[in-house]
Design a protein that fits this description.
Structural class: mainly beta
Number of domains: 5
Shape: flat
Helix content: under 10%
Strand content: over 45%
Length: 682
């Protein structure tokens, strides 16, 4: 990927199932290797940002997701953030990764003591940095705060740098409705309660002030830091972190992100393991992840945020932007709070060589593939080419190449594609093959919509899993079943009703088969939901236990008898929920949950819950707000990363913090939906 930076993608077969692992190997002693921390849109509070755009803004070669964050609130990270030597968020006592002078990496818990000292010598303890939640009384904020629209502060001062590391108060206000605007190097202090009285008593405009900052542990030349956890290894041995985030995840197979360093501090490994995909990668437990990092050579190691946040991006040689290296378990990039990045710090120079790349290392005889040539300098920085690029192939009896780098394979054998641009050149070896090792049909969806059109493709690989380029017109398609019509180009037009279509693709002596399930049908779990404590009945759980909620069987306002939930969440301001629980084991892989609900327009959330095969409970949202009155059928997708078989466990009404909700709802006709026709189910 650049000086001192290498990337590998592993596909492993284990006794429990497959694993896919992305590994970046970084030489910390290489003078052109830099480590940096980035936050979403360079802010602490605000909308999340995908890791890829965060990495491109830093011109990173490698990036991984880092800290846990307030996913249901303002999105701020939970732990320490230091970027460019400036503390942007205070630590929470859990594990952090800190980068000091000479790329010295330290992993472990951190603590911060921060004080604002008045001209009188009086010191005020600052209890948060860019974090105005969780009861903070005195907060230091920077331009990276994100500036929420409402300050809710009784007092504020703005500080600008003065001589000898001191600051000067340039503004002091009381009861301001918004946070004070700051110049890039300025600092703000916001206070409420008694801290506000003390702040305004101690400072007025024109006063000098100093900041006392003590971060433990002390790291020489500390310039970057980011939170995470738990610690997995210490001095080469497994470590049980007493302050592990989400300790219930310790022995559950998850997608995981982590980092490890060698005993001599010369090497850093950044690693992601994909998960929640039984056919592709089953994930690992935290102890397994620690063992993997130890096997790579790490002496100290820690994890970062996991699950759908797990991601690695890489910038391949000669490219201007990163690409996603792993497969996020959400099926797409999740917007996150911060990331850890590897940066090529060398100054770009003139072109030194051409880096050549193709979409596959092999091509089927008679087919085509495209070759690209990008320029890099002596330190592997992407630069503009020194002139037009020309291509050639040897031996010409096996393939031809045109001026755009389009290769036409003629006969099996080994060929070399060469490129030249001014004084720079490059070569790319390719194999022309006469047969395909394995063929797969894509895209593969859980369900295909009726009366829709899909363009199918056949993906070819060798026995070792490497890609083979195959022209679309070299693939022969056929189909059987009532699920639709398939043309010679692999385009299918699905039927108008739930059905199935068996599709076959043939190329290079190999065959691939796929079943397309069109539409969906409902399987009714229960028309009538009966309250009670016995098996098969629904019972009420309240959280907290003292909220007002009752469960019975009664008539809805229209006279229809159904399961009735009465709830009153007005008396409390915390998160409140009334859970209607049962245990219903589900066959197969259902697409949706559905239930008929007589709504009350209260605005409360309606959710459903299920338990995965690995014992982990998950929830899905049926309605963000119960905004309707009368009967309405609500549905929610069962996530494709569910670990089958699953068990339906609950329906529940929930009121988030600082919202009021009270009312009555009735429920009936609980069902699940399966792909395809009825005869295909379960």
């Amino acid at each position: 990927m650049g000086p001192g930076v290498e990337f590998e993608r592993w596909r492993l077969k284990t006794s429990d199932g497959p694993l896919q692992v992305s590994i970046a190997h970084i030489d910390l002693r290489n003078p052109n290797v830099g480590l940096g921390v980035g936050t979403r849109y360079d802010r602490i509070v605000g909308p999340g940002e995908p890791l890829s755009t965060m990495a491109d803004r830093r011109s990173a070669e490698i990036g991984i997701n880092a800290d846990y964050f307030d996913i249901s609130g303002n999105g701020e990270p939970t732990n320490l953030v230091i970027a460019h030597g400036v503390i942007q968020h205070a630590p929470n006592g859990r594990a952090v990764l800190m980068v000091g002078a000479g790329n010295h990496v330290v992993m472990g818990p951190a603590s911060l003591k921060l004080q604002l000292i008045a001209p009188s010598g009086d010191a005020l303890d600052i209890d948060s940095v860019n974090d105005w939640s969780h009861g903070a009384q005195l907060m230091l904020f920077t331009q990276a705060f994100g500036m929420p629209s409402e300050a809710d502060a009784s007092a504020e001062i703005a500080l600008t740098p003065a001589d000898n590391g001191a600051y000067r108060v340039v503004r002091a206000v009381a009861d301001d409705l918004t946070f004070l605007p700051l110049a890039p190097d300025d600092l703000g202090i916001a206070a409420r309660g008694n801290a506000a009285v003390n702040l305004l008593h101690a400072f007025k405009e024109g006063d000098s002030a100093t900041l006392s900052q003590a971060l433990t542990p002390q790291v020489d030349g500390l310039r970057e830091a980011v939170g995470g956890g738990p610690i997995l290894l210490r001095d080469g041995a497994p470590y049980e972190d007493p302050d592990a985030p989400s300790p219930e995840e310790r022995d559950v197979r998850y997608p995981l992100t982590g980092a490890g360093t060698s005993a001599d501090g010369a090497t850093l490994w950044l690693v992601t393991v994909d998960g929640r995909a039984p056919a592709r990668s089953i994930g690992v437990t935290r102890p397994m992840f620690g063992a993997l990092l130890a096997a790579l050579g790490a002496s100290d190691a820690m994890a970062f945020d996991s699950g759908g946040s797990t991601e690695m991006v890489v910038r391949r040689l000669g490219e201007d932007h990163v690409s996603i290296a792993n497969v996020p378990s959400d099926g797409r990039e999740r917007s996150i709070a911060d990331g850890l990045f590897v940066i090529n710090t060398a100054t770009p120079g003139p072109p030194a060589r051409l880096v050549m790349r193709s979409e596959a290392a092999s091509v089927l005889a008679g087919s085509h593939l495209s070759v690209t040539a990008s320029s890099v300098d002596v330190n592997d920085q992407p630069v503009a080419p020194g002139g037009p690029v020309t291509f050639a192939v040897a031996p010409p009896s096996l393939a031809t190449v045109d001026a755009r780098g389009r290769v036409h394979a003629l006969a099996s054998g080994h060929v070399t594609i060469s490129a030249r641009s001014g004084p720079t050149s490059g070569e790319l070896p390719l194999d022309v093959v006469s047969r395909v090792g394995e063929l797969r049909i894509q895209p593969v969806y859980r369900v295909y919509a009726p009366s829709s059109e899909y363009a199918l493709t056949a993906v070819a690989t060798r026995e070792d899993g490497t890609a083979i380029a195959v022209d679309s017109d070299a693939v022969r398609w056929s189909a059987r079943g009532d699920g639709g019509a398939l043309d010679a180009a692999g385009t299918v037009r699905t039927a108008t009703r739930p059905s199935r279509l068996e599709v076959t693709a043939r190329a290079g002596g190999s065959q691939a088969d796929a079943t397309l399930l069109v539409g969906a049908h409902e399987v009714r779990l229960a028309s009538t939901l009966l309250p009670g404590e016995s098996a098969g009945h629904w019972h009420l759980i309240k959280a907290p236990a003292d909220i007002n909620a009752e469960l019975d069987q009664s008539n809805a306002p229209d006279g229809v008898s159904a399961l009735h939930l009465s709830y009153d969440f007005v008396s409390s301001r915390s998160t409140r929920a009334a859970f209607i629980e049962n245990e219903i084991a589900l066959a197969g892989e259902p697409l949706l949950f559905s239930v008929q609900v007589f709504g009350d327009g209260s605005g409360a959330w309606l959710r459903a819950g299920y338990r995965n095969a690995d014992g982990i409970a998950d929830s899905i949202t049926l309605a963000r707000r119960i905004s309707w009155k009368g009967w309405q059928t609500v549905r929610a997708e069962v996530p494709p990363q569910a670990r089958w078989p699953i068990t339906f466990t609950r329906l529940y009404v929930v009121a988030p913090p600082n919202t009021q909700a009270a009312g009555d709802i009735w429920l009936r006709n609980l069902g699940v939906w399966y792909a395809g026709p009825v005869r295909n189910a379960q």
